[in-house]
Amino acid sequence: MTAFNRFVRASGCAFIFCLSISPAFSIEGIHDDDHASLIKYYEDRANQAAMHLQEHQSQLEKYEAHPYYYGRQGQDFRSHTLANIHEYKKQLNDNLRHAELYRKILSQQQMPINKAKINIENPASTVR
């Protein structure tokens, strides 16, 4: 068994978890290993999406209260606003999910590794 295989078995799913994040989604100006900045970036985007969501929801409420003000374009306005609300909810959820993912990665990186509990020679005897 190679050293790499022993490392993969010893580190378990934490190694696979880190591989699941693709560098294809890297943010310009933020290094892939700077998880604190990535958390802030996605939280800021989530806040922006929440602001836009609230804006469109208030527009929809105004329309629902007085649909006769909008004339023939009212139905187009309503469907367009509903589509925007749906999109901003999706963006909000995605950005919050990304921020939580990077928060987990950051907390895993900050955990100290107890080398006394890892037996590299015999992966089956590793204390978990």
Overview of the molecule:
The chain has 4 helices and no strands. The protein is mainly α and 128 residues long. Helix 3 runs antiparallel to helix 4. The model is unreliable at 13-24 (pLDDT under 50).
In short:
By secondary structure, the chain is an all-alpha fold. It has helices at residues 3-11, 13-19, 35-65, 74-110.
| Shape type | rod-shaped
Rounded average pLDDT: 81
Q: Helix fraction?
A: 55-70%
Instruction: Encode the helix/strand succession as letters.
Output: HHHH
- Poorly predicted runs are 13-24
The overall strand count is 0
Provide the gyration radius in Å: 23 Å
Ends distance: 21 Å
The description of the largest β-sheet is: none
> Hey, roughly how much beta strand do the residues contain?
under 5%
> How many domain modules?
1
Any key phrases for this structure?
4 helices, single chain, 128 residues, mainly alpha
SSE order and pairing:
Blueprint: H1 3-11, H2 13-19, H3 35-65, H4 74-110
Helix pairs in contact: 3-4
